[in-house]
Amino acid sequence: MDRSRTTLIFAWMLLAPALLYVLVIVAWPLVETVRLSFTDASLKKVTDYVGWRNYTKIYNATFFEVIVRTFTWTFFSVLLKMIIGTCGAVLLNAAVPGRHLFRILTMPPWIVPMAIGIFMWGWMYNGQFGMISGLLQRFGLVDGPVAFLAYGNTAYWATIFTDVWIGVPMVTIYFLAAIQSIPKDLYEAAWTDGASRWMRFRRITLPLMAPAIITMSMLSLIATFNSFDIIWILTRGGPSGETTTMIIDTYQTAIGSKKYGEGAARAVVICIFLSLFCLAYFRVTRRLAAADNA
Amino acid sequence: MTTLIRKGLIGMALVCTTALPAMAKDISWIYCGDKIDPVHEKAIQEWDAKNPDNKVVVEVVGWEQCQDKATTLAAAGSPAGIAYVGSRTLKEFAQNDMIVPVPMTDAEKASYYPGIVNTVTSGGTQWGVPIAFSTKALYWNKDLFKQAGLDPEKPPTTWAEEIEDAKIIKEKTGIPGYGLPAKTFDNTMHQFLHWVYTNNGEVIDADGNIKLDSPQVLAALKAYKDITPYSEEGPTAYEQNEVRAIFLDGKVAMIQGSVGAAFKLKDTKINWGVSDLPLGPDAKGKGTLLITDSLAVFKGSGVEDKAVEFAKYITSAPVQEAYEGGGAAGLTPLRPSPAVDKMVADAPYWKPFIDGIASGGPEPLFTDYKGFQNVMIEMVQSVVTGKAEPDAALKKAAAALEEYK
Predict the structure, then answer these.
(1) pLDDT tier at B1 (50, 70, 90 boundaries)?
(2) Which of B47, B250, B290, B376 could form a disulfide with B360 if both were Cys (CB 3.0 to 4.6 A apart)?
(3) Shortest CA gap B96–chain A (Å)
C-alpha cells in the first residue's frame, strides 16, 4: 500500500464519526421525510405511494397565504430584532456608570425557559387579567379590556413581539461583541476631526458592524422561519388561522390530523426554503471572508 | 469438577431468575394528567396483587401530549397496553386497526346512564370503556342579575331569554352578560355542540351522513352571532377554563360549565345559581353534549385480553364511584346509583348535570376528529369575529366535514 493511499484511508477514518453522525441525524430523516411525502402515510398500517398527490393537494390558495404569512412574520421579526439589537448594543457599549448591570439586565428573556416566557406574555396579552390591557385602561387609552390574542391583526403582532423579546438578547450581545472589536482609534480620529456622534455611528460603527449584522440576520432568519413554540403556545395558529405559519401548519397536518404523508410534503417545502436561506448564508459569509482577506 | 457443576447451577439459577420476569407481561397504561389519582393507585395495587404476571405500569403524561403520545406509540408499532383517550378518537383508531373492541354485555350497557355507551360505539361495537364523563349546565351570577334589574332567581330557559338577559346585563352594568369561549381549542367545539344539542340538532347521523347544514344548527350559529356583542371582549382569546376564571372573578354573568365550577365557586363570595342549559326554538327537551374519555385497548401489546379485563375492572362501579369522588374532580357520574341519588339530594346543584344526560347527544365520531374539530372551530370563530355570516360559514363547514367523516 503506497503512502498516499494510507493517508487517504486515515483521512476517511477520521471523517467517519462525523459522516456517520450526519448520515444518521440529518441525511436519513431528511431522505425519509422526502420518501414519506410521496406516500399516503397515516395511522393506517398499509402505506401506498401516491406520486405527487400530496404536493398537488397543498398547492392551493390557503397554503400560499400561509407561505406569505410565514415570510412577512419572519421579515418583521428579524427586522425588529436587528434594529433593537443594534440600538441595544450601542447603548450597552456606552461608557455610562453601571453598564455591566445593564448588560446583565438584557439577559432574562434569554435565560428564562422559553415556554415560561411565552406563558408570561400570554397572560400579559389577556384582556381580562392582563397587565397590558390593564395599563391601557388605567391611562385611559382604551375604553375596555383589549384581548390582544383575539383578533388576527393584534395576535399576529403579539406573536412577533414575543419572538422579538426572546430573540433580542442574543442579537444584542453578538452586536456588542462586534462593536467592541472596532478599533478605538478610529473613533478618536473622527472625534478629533469634529465628527458628530451620529456621523461616527453612521460612518464607523455601522459599516464595521455590517458583517456581524448580515451574519446574524441570516442566522436569525433561519431560526425565526421555523419558530414554533411562540405561536403554538400563544394562539395555536388562531384565530381563524391568522397566525398559522408553515411550521404550525405542518404540525397540525402531520401530528394533529395524523396525515404523515401530507405533513411530510409541507415539511419538504419548508426544507426547500430553509436550504435557500442556508445557501444565501454560505455565499454571504464566503464573500465577507473574501473581503476580509482582501 | 464440583466447582464446574456449582458454577453451572448458579448460572442456570441466574438464567431462570432473569427469564421468569420476562415471561410475565406488564400492562402499560398511558395515564393523562399530572399524577395518578389515589383511587386508581389503590385499585392498581389490588390488581397487581391478584395478577402478578400482568402488573400495571402507569406512565403519567400531561393532558396536552397524552393523546398524541398514545397515538404516536401505536403508529410506531410499540403501542401501550391501554391509554386514556377522548372517546371521539375511538372511531379513527378502530378504522385504522389500532385498538381492539371492548364489547359490553347488555347488563354492562344498562348500568350506564343513557347515551354514555353511544359515545364509545361505532359500527355497533364498543371500542373503549368510559372512565370520565362531563355534562354542562348554565351558571349565573345572581348579584349581576339583580344589579341589572333582572330577577336573580330566574335564570334564562331559552336562547332568546339568554341573549336578552346578556344584553340587559351588558347595557345596565357594563359587565359581559355571557362568557363565550371561542379560542383555537377543542372546547370551543364542545361548547358549540351544547347549543346544537339544545336545539335538536346533529352533526352526523348514525349512517355517517353529515347533517350539519340544518335549520337547527344554523339557529345555534345565529344565536352565537347574536350573543357575541354581549359576551366578554374578544371571545377568540378565551377557552372554557379561562372564561370560567372570569366568571369566578365576577366579571361575566353567565357561563356554561361542568360541575367542577360549582366546587370552585364554593371558595368565592359569588352569589350563584346553576340551571339546565337554555333551549333553542326547535328543542324537544333538555340537552347537553355528553363528553366521555375512555380507556382504549391497543392492538399489538401482547396483553390485549388482560388489558380489557383491567379496563373493565378499573372502571367497575365501586372503583369508578370512588374516582368520581362526589364530584370534586369535576366529573359527572357515569352510572346511576343510590350514592348519586344521595349526592343530588344533599347538593341540589348536581341536578341539571344529571337531568340533561337522558336527552344529551354524544360527541360525533369522525375518522379524522382533529380535522373535524378544526372545521368546527373555524366555523365558530369566523362567525364570532364577523368574518362570515352564519349561513355561509355553516355551508362551508358542512362541505369541509365530508372529508373527515
Answers:
(1) very low
(2) B290
(3) 5
Interface residue A43 vs chain B (CB under 8 A): yes
CB contact (8 A) between residue A238 and residue B183? yes
Asked if A211 reaches chain B (Cβ–Cβ under 8 Å), the answer is: no
In 10 A of CB A13, how many CB atoms? 9
A253 has a chain B CB within 8 A of its CB? no
Other CB atoms within 10 Å distance of the CB of residue A68:
10
Q: Give residue-wise pLDDT tens across range B99-115.
A: 999 999 999 999 999 88
Angle at B235 between CA B233 and CA B236, to 5 degrees: 130
- B8 confidence band (pLDDT: 50, 70, 90): low
| pLDDT value, residue A12 | 92
Interface with A, mutate which of B188, B236, B238 (most A CBs under 10 A): B236
Can you give the residue ranges of every domain in chain A? 65-293
Work out the minimum CA distance from B106 to partner chain A, whole angstroms. 31
In the DSSP assignment, the letter for residue A252 is I
Domain A65-293, CATH among 3.50.50.60, 3.40.50.720, 3.40.50.2300, 1.10.3720.10: 1.10.3720.10
Q: What radius of gyration do chain B's Cα atoms show?
A: 24
Separation between Cα atoms, residue B203 and residue A257, nearest integer Å: 19
Which residues have a Cβ under 8 Å from the Cβ of A76 and sit 6 or more positions away?
A160
A24 touches chain B (CB under 8 A): no
Distance CA A160, CA B32 (A): 32
Interface check for A98 against chain B (CB to CB < 8 A): the answer is: no
**For domain B2-133+291-340, which CATH number applies: 3.30.450.40, 2.60.120.600, 3.40.640.10, 3.40.190.10?**
3.40.190.10
Contacts of A43 in chain B (CB under 8 A): 71, 74-75, 92-93, 96, 98
Q: Name the minimum distance, in Å, from the CA of A109 to any CA of chain B.
A: 24
Pairs of residues, one from chain A and one from chain B, whose beta carbons lie less than 8 Å apart: 97
pLDDT at residue B17, rounded to an integer = 44
For chain A of 294 residues, list the mean pLDDT of each consecutive stretch of 10.
Answer: 83 93 91 94 86 91 93 96 93 82 84 93 92 92 90 95 95 93 90 89 90 91 93 92 94 88 95 91 83 71
Asked if A235's CB is within 8 angstroms of B381's CB, the reply is: no
| List of residues 6+ apart from B201 with CB closer than 8 A | B211, B214, B216, B217, B219, B220, B280, B282
Query: In terms of CATH, what superfamily is B137-287+366-404?
Result: Periplasmic binding protein-like II (3.40.190.10)
What is residue A233's predicted lDDT score, i.e. its pLDDT?
A: 94
Residue with the larger pLDDT of the pair B329 and B132: B132
User: pLDDT-based confidence at B45, cuts 50/70/90?
Assistant: very high
Mean pLDDT for B198-215 is 90
Q: Give A-chain residues touching B183 at CB under 8 angstroms.
A: 236, 238-239
Nearest to B251 among A128, A239, A241 (CB): A128
ipTM of the complex: 0.78
Report pLDDT digits (tens) over B49-89. Answer: 999 989 999 999 987 788 888 888 888 888 999 999 888 88
Give the residue range(s) of CATH 3.40.190.10 domains in chain B.
2-133+291-340, 137-287+366-404
Cβ pair A257:B371 closer than 8 A: yes
Q: What's the rounded Cα separation, in Å, for the pair B70 and B85?
A: 8
